[in-house]
Design the sequence.
């Protein structure tokens, strides 16, 4: 009998990308996908169960008992960092309490848990690339809930793989790349923060390495990001450059650098901007050492990714 993998969050940008890669790469697991309630457009593959709200912890338990997965892949999360500051209860139950249920179920049922986490569990005060063991010190509520989830997983005693990544983008919205492309097309000027640093990472990149780590039976925490780093401002300039190549006929907005503080002031009438780490640069040395290969730079990964989809 083929072992079962159960994917939560199959409608998210990472979830959708994982499904596509899962089908490409043969795996020892069959894949079942669970999503909240939105229809998938051009859905490529395996069976999907609608209507699972992982915030309903009893229902979550019931689903785990029904499916009896050998591998749980959790790509579901409350990912709106600014909204999480206000919508705390929901962010906490989705990002932390539901993960606790998954981890405890995995421990009791000898299943593996693959969970996705973030650079935001750290403070961003270090100017060095952050290794996996760097202490947690989240600066916003989203980061706090993701940090709590990591702790729950480690305390549960289950076999786990935690993949931390950052600045995720894909052909599926919402993400910085698609938002920026839209603004560049329709605005005259765009302000972009120039004092936060991180590693842009495509969902394709994360999916490929996640499956490799799973197939290699790896456990523990891994930072899955390309090499190098940049600021949001420089990333926006790179997006603009690529867009001008894809669409030479378009007039694109200019990009102005702005500090995080001034950006928050600019937005404050519309919504509360959560504080974010300044230096959220994840080190991928552990991954590179395991695979005994150099991990490509984010610019190369970005250029490759843009061969797969149009910015606009
Ligand atoms: N985005 C980033 O920049 C970033 C950076 C670092 C780490 N991460 C982590 O990477 C993982 C994937 O992120 P992503 O960008 O793919 O997120 P995403 O596109 O926002 O997808 C999250 C998925 O979770 C689902 N979900 C939310 N609440 C749920 C609930 N109560 N019950 C069931 N499903 C629920 C959503 O369902 P609907 O589609 O139906 O709303 C969505 O499909 C997350 O763990 C995130 O924390 C993301």
Sequence:
């Amino acid at each position: 009998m083929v072992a079962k993998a159960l994917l939560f969050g199959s409608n998210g940008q990472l979830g959708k990308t994982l499904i596509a890669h899962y089908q490409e790469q043969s795996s020892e697991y069959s894949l079942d996908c669970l999503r909240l309630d939105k229809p998938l457009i051009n859905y490529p593959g395996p069976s999907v169960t609608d209507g699972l709200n992982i915030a309903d912890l009893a229902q979550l338990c019931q689903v785990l008992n029904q499916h009896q997965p050998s591998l749980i892949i959790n790509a579901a999360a409350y990912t709106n960092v600014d909204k999480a500051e206000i919508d705390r209860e929901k962010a906490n139950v989705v990002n932390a309490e539901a993960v606790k249920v998954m981890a405890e179920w995995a421990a009791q049922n000898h299943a593996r848990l693959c969970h996705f986490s973030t650079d935001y569990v750290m403070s961003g005060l270090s100017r060095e690339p952050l290794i996996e063991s760097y202490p947690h010190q989240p600066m916003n509520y989203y980061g706090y809930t993701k940090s709590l989830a990591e702790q729950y997983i480690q305390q549960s005693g289950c076999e786990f793989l935690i993949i931390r990544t950052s600045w995720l983008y894909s052909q599926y919205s919402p993400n910085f790349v698609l938002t920026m492309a839209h603004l560049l097309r329709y605005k005259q000027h765009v302000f972009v923060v120039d004092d936060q640093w991180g590693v842009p990472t495509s969902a394709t990149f994360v999916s490929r390495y996640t499956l490799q780590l799973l197939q290699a039976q790896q456990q523990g925490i891994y930072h899955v990001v390309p090499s190098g780093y940049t600021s949001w401002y420089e990333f926006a300039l790179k997006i603009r450059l690529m867009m001008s190549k894809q669409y030479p006929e378009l007039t694109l907005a200019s990009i102005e650098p702005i500090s995080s503080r001034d950006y928050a002031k600019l937005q404050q009438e519309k919504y509360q901007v959560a504080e974010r780490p300044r230096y959220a640069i994840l080190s991928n040395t552990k991954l590179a050492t395991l695979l005994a290969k150099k991990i490509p730079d984010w610019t190369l990964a970005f250029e490759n990714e843009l061969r797969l989809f149009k910015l606009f």
Q: What stands out?
A: The mean pLDDT is 90.
